[in-house]
Prior knowledge:
2 copies of one chain form a homodimer. Chain A is an alpha/beta fold and 323 residues long. The first copy, chain A, is 46% helix and 12% strand. Chain A has 12 helices and 9 strands. In chain A, strand 5 (94-97), helix 5 and strand 6 form a beta-alpha-beta unit.
Amino acid sequence: MSVHFRKLALIGIGLIGSSIALAARRQGLVDVISIATRRHDTLEEARSLGLGDIYTLDASEAVRDADLVILCAPVGAYGALAEAIGPALAKGAILSDVGSVKEHVLKVVGPHVPEGVEFIPGHPLAGTEHSGPSAGFAELFAGRWCVLTPGPEISPSQTERLAAFWRAMGSDVECMDAAHHDMVLAITSHVPHLIAYNIVGTVADLEADTKSEVIKFSASGFRDFTRIAASDPVMWRDVFLTNRDAVLEMLGRFNEDLSRLQRAVRTGDGPALEALFTRTRTIRRSIINAGQETAAADFGRPHDTPPPVEPLIVRDHGGGDDA
Amino acid sequence: MSVHFRKLALIGIGLIGSSIALAARRQGLVDVISIATRRHDTLEEARSLGLGDIYTLDASEAVRDADLVILCAPVGAYGALAEAIGPALAKGAILSDVGSVKEHVLKVVGPHVPEGVEFIPGHPLAGTEHSGPSAGFAELFAGRWCVLTPGPEISPSQTERLAAFWRAMGSDVECMDAAHHDMVLAITSHVPHLIAYNIVGTVADLEADTKSEVIKFSASGFRDFTRIAASDPVMWRDVFLTNRDAVLEMLGRFNEDLSRLQRAVRTGDGPALEALFTRTRTIRRSIINAGQETAAADFGRPHDTPPPVEPLIVRDHGGGDDA
């Protein structure tokens, strides 16, 4: 048995779904790609991009005879989707997903998985702030982690088969318990997104004059936050609705630390501030060393070159006189 | 009078100072660059990089006969520096700086500025997370704002002369009141940095096992924050010590909003979450339209290509059997 699948069904075709379609095709991992999505215009967009072979608005139609089915819709839609496709899933198929939370997914999808189908939840830790079928690209998963959270009833050979599929798209694969995944992701992803959304929201509430200045001068730090806070709203709503406990736990720690930091600013505690700011620098170095980030300054953002030297003569004022 | 200066003295030669040296030289804006810094090894590093013409540990020596002097040291050092160089400043010289706060700078430097010298505080809104003389590059200021905060006693012709110098290095220049600068920067820069330092600090306090997983899986959002939280610790300590009131005011707003958002997560208020997450998306679009950010996904970070297609045969398991 090779990593090859006969028919891949993608239920949902946003950034992640379309990237899987492109990567699986390019790497020759599947014969047929079947795409289902809820909205007609999204389906037509996928068709015009040539992402698959079969296009349908009926998810249960899409999964027929598929040996690999991946849910790529917002997590909030999983329960209804699983109920709809459950009876149509082929015996021996692997059912997986790409959702950002995993315990909730086991809970809402699990009951609808028929005997003979192996449900192996997955989460590729990859994405950009863009969404929709046209946002995908085949390189999205290269060098990024994909976490699988198979239950104890899943055969290791099937997990390995799915892992090989992800590795072939460039991912590194790690298996862990669903609850542990949700806790780690609350820290690395969910709370950072919440914080970014919050600060951008604070700015959005400023008076119009100030807001336009903030936008103008955003390159001094704020704009980094806006990238994260430009991620897909429905997907992120569902993350916070379905990983509440882990998010609130980590947010509690963040708030405690922020109170302490606020006090250090208020009391002018220079040594405490400098100590924190020095400690945080080493974390970034670790991330770069772990190959999860570019060492290039400013994320490797493009920097313009200065304009060519012009005849830089300005008005000839008398020294110190007003113009 | 042209934009040309005979002798530029840079007091401090970190990321910003070294970038000014490189940009001013490349654009032919000065004849002589004189560099002073407090530490011997930093001075030697600047010398080995060929950043200037004159190198000294004595700031008052560096400014002698200079017609443009720019303080590029941490703001906390300004008072002592101004006291030291004040008597040595040449009549007719322009004294400026690059510090991230401006009211405080007027307060601590102003009293040491002798008659006949024009003190025009400045702040280039440019930088990366790297620091030190070797971090500088001539393109740093291209397409970035430089804010000048001249007092009412400064002649517009001198302000224009300094503005032309920054424009020649690629900056757009804006003049504003020092207090207004400090408020706008508290929002766009200081509070975002504080938040980023805080969340990275929260992670730094996690148990070793969890921390290593957070680093491993950081690409899911957290790593963006670490870039900001890797900025120069002493510079940022001084920012929070000297722009306290504006920072605490904005931090108060951020905290109010975060409490409300936390409640929305706790009560599972999906519509409120989705509404905020949709609203914040438009702010990023405005920043991209304002030319302050790249529209490329993920800041234009490099994405690897997936590995070449390999003979993707895995072990031949019987269907469903354990390996």
